[in-house]
């Protein structure tokens, strides 16, 4: 007969009666100082920014008056900053009425362009690097115009009322506020002589005919009709669609696409 004062050992318990397999608290992981995490956060932000700029869109500055009054960029005006998105054209080509940013497609478009990069090799390298993240503008002749006609269409000017014709039908263009004079008695005064007449030009498939809303002050497709593309712009040279004015504060708002062929 066992002595009642003798201790009884319970399987799985320690001397203090605690279960041997009970979880023990793990030591807390020491948090890194902020200055050690900062480079990682900056790196993540830079990668995200680069992806956005490359695949989604980026801001641009309007440098000239060719799209007034839709977009400001004239001397004495505050140059509009616009946001240009790329997603729309992953699923389809630009349509008539879209305001697009594109790179000058031929030497005729680019003959007056001067590089915005420094001549210093180191500084130029830094500028190119920052451009990849959207912090510096790309070193290319980016232009903004409105699509008037697309591949396969024939564009010309003018009818008896001075309107542009696409496939023989006059366009309704309420966004045009400034234009060259039009004399119905002399409708054939050419564009390069201060009139409106041009064409007919058949736009090649995969290309666009683009014009500025400020018709009297826009070196657009009409101005480059003698180049190898007859002034048209390949869709592949389009950087994106202007969708929003982001600066100055007083002009923030959407950039409207108005199809002139819908009448």
Mean pLDDT: 87
- Could you state the oligomeric state of the chains shown? single chain
In percent, how helical is the residue content?
A: 10-25%
Global outline? elongated
Structural class: alpha+beta
Low-confidence stretches: 1-15
Kindly provide the radius of gyration, computed on alpha-carbon positions and rounded to a whole number of angstroms. Answer: 32 Å
**In the CATH classification, which architecture of one domain applies?**
Ribbon
Total DSSP helices: 3
The CATH class of one domain is identified as Mainly Beta
Beta-strand percentage range: 15-25%
The CATH H-level superfamily of one domain is: Umud Fragment, subunit A
Q: What is the chain-wise order of helices and strands?
A: HEEEHHEEEEEEEEE
Q: According to CATH, what is the topology of one domain?
A: Umud Fragment, subunit A
In total, how many beta strands?
12
From the N-terminal CA to the C-terminal CA, the straight-line distance is: 111 Å
Largest sheet, in brief, is: 8 strands, antiparallel
Task: Describe the protein.
The protein has a domain at 93-239: Ribbon (Umud Fragment, subunit A), CATH 2.10.109. The strands form 2 sheets. Strands 1, 2, 3, 4, 9, 10, 11 and 12 form an 8-stranded antiparallel β-sheet that branches. A 4-stranded antiparallel β-sheet has the order 7-6-5-8, with no helix packed on it. It is built from 3 helices and 12 strands, in the order H-E-E-E-H-H-E-E-E-E-E-E-E-E-E. Helix content is 14%, strand content 22%. The longest helix has 22 residues, at 34-55.
